Amino acid sequence: MPSLSDNSADMDRLLRALSGTGTRPAVDYSLFQRVSRLLRQWDFSARCVLFQGGGQLELLDILDPRGESRALGVAVDLGTTRIVMRLVDLESRETLSETVMDNPQISLGSDILTRIHHAATDEGAEELKTLVCRGVDDGLETLCLQAGVSVQEVYIVAISGNTAMTHLFMGLPAEHIIREPYIPVTNTPGTHRASLFLEHTNPEGRVFFFPNIGSYFGGDLISGILFSGIHRQKETSLLVDVGTNAEVVLGNRDWLVGCAGAAGPALEGGVSSMGMTAGDGVIDRVRRDGDDFTVGTIGHLPPLGVCGSGFIDLAAVLFLTGMIDAKGKLVESACKGRYTMEHGLPALIVVPEETSGTGGAITVSQASLDSLIRSKAAMYTILETIVMKVGVGFGDLEKIHVAGTFGAYIDPESAISIGMIPDLDRNRYEKIGNSSLEGATLMLYGDRYMDEADAIRDRITYVELNVDQDFMIRFSGAKFIPHTDPDLFPTVTKK
Amino acid sequence: MPSLSDNSADMDRLLRALSGTGTRPAVDYSLFQRVSRLLRQWDFSARCVLFQGGGQLELLDILDPRGESRALGVAVDLGTTRIVMRLVDLESRETLSETVMDNPQISLGSDILTRIHHAATDEGAEELKTLVCRGVDDGLETLCLQAGVSVQEVYIVAISGNTAMTHLFMGLPAEHIIREPYIPVTNTPGTHRASLFLEHTNPEGRVFFFPNIGSYFGGDLISGILFSGIHRQKETSLLVDVGTNAEVVLGNRDWLVGCAGAAGPALEGGVSSMGMTAGDGVIDRVRRDGDDFTVGTIGHLPPLGVCGSGFIDLAAVLFLTGMIDAKGKLVESACKGRYTMEHGLPALIVVPEETSGTGGAITVSQASLDSLIRSKAAMYTILETIVMKVGVGFGDLEKIHVAGTFGAYIDPESAISIGMIPDLDRNRYEKIGNSSLEGATLMLYGDRYMDEADAIRDRITYVELNVDQDFMIRFSGAKFIPHTDPDLFPTVTKK
């Protein structure tokens, strides 16, 4: 309490009480305006909301020590297609609510390239920024409504996205990302005032962006590594996250090697003519039934289409039943009644008109199958390449963390059957879900994780696959099912 | 230059080039938006505007390496009555322009107390903030117009004011400053975005406030110490700054003791009924002429009134000619035709009606003289008290730095004659001008001075004069001219 013998200023008294945290925090202007009134109202006692970011400890707010107001944070997985958000209590670490939405930038282009070109036009970057920021802002409101809390209680928003999405969220010109020599505006976007982007946070809220490694290797993967913990383990493990690109990291507590490459559109819905985003009525499981197969749909509803994981299941079954050959080509004799022609090209009837939910037959074209083969080959080659680069074998891997939508829904058995992922003991595969969101959530819990994210960024050796010649040779070998070298897939050969 | 083998991001490349400065600077959002375009426009070369404040190095802007745009700073001496501003080039340290204005808060109260009470009303603090900020903003525009530069080139504004004026500039509730136990909102207001207060700076500009020691000992004096350099000298010196309060610091490179006390209104114009702010036609010099005296005015114009320094000259002459006695009372017989009565009380005609510039006689009342005696007694007692506190004598002082308007215009001979300042070798007195403005100017030139200002603040032992009983006893002795103990003023006694 202030007295004549201890008449230091209100703010200095508060900061002195916080001196246990080491460095003296920076204080925002608005708090100077409120501190004297609030400290007197609360008998010179307060709970403090501190934020450590970018080397500077900041005192964001003070709360009634007896009150119920909380300090909350929001983790954002900023995907090209989808945005997933989670509201947490920063003290108890309890998840209060979650929400998912389409990335509103889709209205200006479903793929990254279109958006980057749009960002290069007058006002384009600002337009894209506004779209996504409004979306996230609505998400913040939704999260708070669901949890019955005030947006004033949200002090930190941690955003994990790939390099392009981070740039487009920030309203930065991103055109140099896609032109040789592929230069982002920044790989360390850091911490900013949330009010530059969002309205539905505390006025002193901060937004933190994950660092990137380069144009093709974004903060979402650093977030994933942070969550997987492979950078803390003695044993070597692998992390694979398949979205629009396949991103792979190999390493342990001593070293990390990362690479990213195009895995093809067949693995993510919305781009391929037949691949759908997972949803009610979508075929996500295909099971062998003798020489034929049966399908399962989400919500057990009449089938509407096939999603990525269903497509991989389907390809595995087609191969095991002989309906496609080792090159992925439809074998008319084995397909029997399922064989048809569309636009002059072979196709497979997955669900006939009678049992389909669309009113027409659900088919898979040879072109789609060819595309899947290229995708699976790319996936395997990426994994093979990174493992070979560092001189370890697949057998040396302690764990393979499979992240993302791909990881959550795919059946490793099917993926191994078509030679997409290595033929290892199934329990070495670990599904870690939306690791980008999970890493962003960790980030909300303190600067230890921020330092870890920076350390991961500084430690990763990035292998640029696009400029590697050997890649194409290995890619050719992987375009067979399961592979030109069957010894690599002993359990598949046995089947 | 970016290449495939060195494809780090634009901002990271820039920060890497700055790594010689030690810590990695924080970067403001708006610079992210511009960096890629500007670096390409300037062939990946740039001049950088860096700011070190509050423990965090910040990159504020980048400038064309071949262009003429400059980084400028503005020093502000934020007085209760007057605001003095100076525009400098941060690189060449050249002064480009200066301006002086009345503090626009005067419209809500000429004295600090009235303003502090006003600040405690609804919207009062905001109203006071707006007034002074608009004034300083206009000053910024004036300075830039005078120097032919753009306000966009102003990156730092350093503000040196007393504790109350700093609070009222920041729009902070200041009422606890004047109530026991005299608690400011903050003694370390630190660095903020200039845009919170001012419009006429670069959008990324920063404003820095000098730290305070306490309610009555403000940043203006810390600024003065910084400029005087007494904190760096081996020998003990004294710094005295008389404004509304008399502020005194005694010390050397090993220790600093400071105190502040009311010196009375007679020393600053505008408050006393006859004391005027220095300006054309104001009597600033009074010279003895046998048993009488003659006056000199600023601009040699017909006299309009007497300012503080002229008043001290006058009192000295009145004492030496016997027109006032040792108690400061007018002696009718010695005053002769200059003696008159006003409102039933004795007064002295300084300038008769015929030669005055006002159309009426210029007089000094006994009440004003009594007030001056109290002021000079307070001044001397403050100096005596602080010197006694630390156990040194006036004779031990290497220098007495006299700052402020008082210091600039006062004749030490006259001030010694009336016993206002100690009777020391005249060349130990050094006029250092507006030391608050000079210190603020130094502050613009780097964090070394910021650290020094913090160190000065941390090192000063503050002596609260108001609560010292001995003070009143010494004060009584000093209410005589020159003093009850004439041995303290040997050169005056000789005259």
Largest beta sheet: strand ordering of chain A? 6-5-4-7-9-8
Might you state the CATH topology name of the largest domain in chain A?
Nucleotidyltransferase, domain 5
Class per helix and strand makeup of chain A = alpha/beta
CATH class designation of the largest domain in chain A: Alpha Beta
Number of domains of chain A: 4
TL;DR of this structure?
By secondary structure, chain A is an alpha/beta fold.
Describe the structure.
The structure is a homodimer of 495-residue chains. The first copy, chain A, is of the alpha/beta class and 495 residues long. Chain A folds into 4 domains: 10-63, no CATH class; 72-209, Domain of unknown function (DUF4445) (Nucleotidyltransferase, domain 5); 229-265 and 372-494, Nucleotidyltransferase, domain 5, CATH 3.30.420; 275-365, no CATH class. Helices cover 32% and strands 25% of the residues of chain A. Chain A has helices at residues 10-17, 29-41, 112-119, 124-147, 163-170, 219-228, 308-320, 332-335, 366-389, 404-409, 412-417, 435-443, 447-459, 469-477, 490-494, and strands at 26-27, 47-53, 56-63, 72-78, 82-89, 95-102, 154-161, 191-193, 206-209, 237-242, 245-251, 256-262, 275-276, 282-289, 292-297, 305-307, 339-342, 345-351, 362-365, 400-403, 429-433, 460-464. In chain A, a hairpin with a 4-residue loop joins β11 (245-251) and β12. In chain A, α6 (219-228) packs across α12, α6 (219-228) crosses α13 and α9 packs across α14. Chains A and B meet through α1, β1 and α2 of A and α1, β1 and α2 of B.
